[in-house]
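Morning F.,

Quick status update on the modeling queue. The single chain you submitted on Monday has been processed. Sequence for confirmation:
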Amino acid sequence: MSSAGTQSGAVVLTAQDISRAITRIAHEILERNRGINNVVLVGMQRGGVWIADAIKAAVERVEPGSTVGAGSIDVSMYRDDIGLRPVVPAAATNISVDLSGRTVVLVDDVLFTGRTVRAALEALNDYGRPRAVQLAVLVDRGHRELPIRPDYVGKNIPTHFDDEVLVNESGVVVTLAQQAEEKVS
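Structure tokens below.
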């Protein structure tokens, strides 16, 4: 879950920690891909878009004069739980380049079960056939239901399945499921 809530919980990353993690991820993307040529950053709506923008800015600071392809993708129509809950589009998809032959770095805020990433992989097919797809996440909280593993991680945060992980530019907060239940009671 990613929202800018004011719930109380344990702050696990501050804004400064997030900035450092994004800078590290940018360096790792440059190193692994031997530069930024033919790399496109695609932020997953909603939480991954601002992170993809921040990674883009960090890459352009590290490699002055480089231009990083970027876009955003809404995966709501590709989810495998469409029959279980109402479909609410997060925001518009904005991919202005053909992804064929390029390396796409999918970016999201929190990696949980892996189902949103699976949907994103399917959605990318509408925009070409990438040479490779890599995954960058700010937080990996575990509990995977699909065989999906990120290539770049800001921080691994072990959680219980029912905990809430709230992410925004000012920090990452984990609210334990027990605390969340007590607030409701």
